[in-house]
């Protein structure tokens, strides 16, 4: 579970949970042990707390390197999914029981890779947002509901390390130690606030979550693309990014550890043609304040794979102009709201009116505005309104875009009531 550690200097205001009540379980690496654990979980009762640890920033992709589970009557289990890549016995053991996760969208894709898919779930982070908690990290939520806290100093470690150090395993086991108890109190809180049905609909939608949509051209997300000067430099970004991705995949390492984005951008703009010029670019990038702390790694990547970088740049030099990628890619997303007043005043008027009322509702209910309706969904419905613009058609369009029923019921009347002309201003 990824969570930023507390960097404050003050002692925590709550007692720190330092060890699981039953001790830290051994990490399961044997099929027979997995089967025994699955039998214990099947014999347990109530929801199952589930968590996974990845090696983001260290390894290529987002696979799980540790899976943690806990169920009443069964205890806690730590499973090595590298040694046991098929956790379908545990999936069968859990059956229809509810999973309890914190920030489910982080863990569901990597759990699916090892054969685990929830039939029902409760997300304590999402539930905490709907309940109006000011901080929704796991430690903060535990503090709020249980009056204890967790130390998070191992949240960003390399979980692909083997063997895993004992303090890390303690941290991992604690992540599921009290999760079901938090779930029970949070559920009661949501019910008391009249928001439980909202949460249940959101949780049900998460059972179908498979991960963020795949981008057609992920290289366009390279940090610093705004500094690229022309279309041929854009092509160099593409070729360097794809080269880096192949190297990172082969090494099973995070792409940024092979070569940071900042150096890719510098190479794309300056197009070095020799090893000496390549190193000069690296030295220039290292001198920037942003890259100085990572300069040693960046320079090593330039040197170790200098032939690959130079070949990528040379390949782009040989491309005819008609083969260069366009500077921008058209998509079906509405334009930025700041452009609406000039391009579509009616849509701009509706958007401003609806957002104002949703903001008021957000503040009254202590729910983040983006949890009431995603900004993209609202913009799409208003920029290209369905025809006819009537209740049932609007509802169908919102549902098609992924809005839950409670969101549809909230937003549809506002869309119908919204004026289509800009508000008059005093001269």
TrEMBL record:
Top-level taxon of origin: Bacteria
Signal peptide (UniProt feature, chain positions): none
CDD domains: RNaseD_exo
Entry protein name: Ribonuclease D
Positions of the UniProt region annotated as Disordered: 274-295
Pfam family, one: DNA_pol_A_exoN
Domain HRDC stretches: 230-312
UniProt-listed PROSITE patterns: HRDC (PS50967)
Protein's GO biological process: nucleobase-containing compound metabolic process
GO molecular function terms attached to this record: 3'-5' exonuclease activity; nucleic acid binding; nucleotide binding
């Amino acid at each position: 579970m990824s969570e930023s550690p507390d960097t404050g200097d003050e002692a925590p205001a709550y007692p720190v949970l330092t060890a699981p009540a039953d001790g830290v379980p051994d990490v399961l690496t044997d099929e027979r042990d997995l089967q025994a654990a699955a039998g214990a979980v099947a014999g347990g009762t109530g929801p199952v707390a589930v968590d996974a640890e990845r090696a983001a920033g260290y390894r290529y992709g987002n696979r799980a390197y540790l899976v943690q589970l806990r169920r009443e009557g069964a205890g806690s289990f730590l499973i090595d999914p590298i040694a046991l890549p098929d956790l379908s016995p545990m999936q069968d053991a859990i059956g229809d029981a509810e999973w309890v996760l914190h920030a489910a969208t982080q863990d569901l894709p990597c759990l699916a890779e090892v054969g685990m898919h929830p039939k029902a779930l409760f997300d304590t982070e999402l539930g905490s947002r709907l309940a109006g908690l000011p901080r929704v990290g796991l430690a903060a939520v535990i503090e709020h509901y249980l009056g204890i806290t967790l130390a998070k100093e191992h949240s960003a470690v390399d979980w692909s390390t083997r063997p895993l150090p004992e303090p890390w395993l303690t941290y991992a086991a604690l992540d599921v130690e009290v999760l079901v108890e938090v779930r029970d109190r949070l559920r009661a809180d949501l019910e008391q606030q009249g928001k439980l049905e909202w949460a249940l609909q959101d949780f049900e939608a998460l059972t179908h979550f498979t991960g963020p949509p795949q981008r057609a051209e992920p290289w366009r997300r390279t940090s610093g693309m705004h500094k690229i000067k022309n279309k041929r430099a854009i092509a160099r970004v593409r070729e360097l990014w794809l080269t880096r991705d192949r190297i990172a995949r082969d090494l099973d390492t995070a792409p940024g550890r092979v070569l940071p984005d900042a150096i890719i951008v510098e190479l794309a703009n300056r197009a070095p043609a020799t090893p000496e010029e390549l190193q000069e670019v690296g030295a220039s990038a290292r001198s920037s304040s942003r890259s100085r702390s990572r300069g040693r790694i960046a320079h090593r990547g330039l040197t170790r794979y200098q032939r690959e970088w130079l070949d990528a740049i040379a390949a782009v030099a040989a491309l005819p102009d008609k083969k260069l990628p366009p500077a921008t890619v058209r998509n079906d997303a509405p334009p930025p709201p700041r452009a609406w007043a000039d391009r579509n005043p009616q849509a701009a008027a509706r958007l401003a009116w609806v957002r104002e009322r949703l903001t008021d509702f957000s503040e009254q209910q202590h729910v983040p505005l983006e949890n009431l309706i995603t900004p993209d969904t609202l913009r799409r419905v208003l920029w290209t309104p369905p025809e006819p613009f009537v209740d049932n058609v609007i509802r169908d369009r919102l549902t098609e875009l992924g809005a839950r029923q409670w969101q549809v019921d909230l937003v549809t009347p506002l869309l119908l009531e919204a004026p289509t002309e800009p508000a008059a201003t005093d001269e």
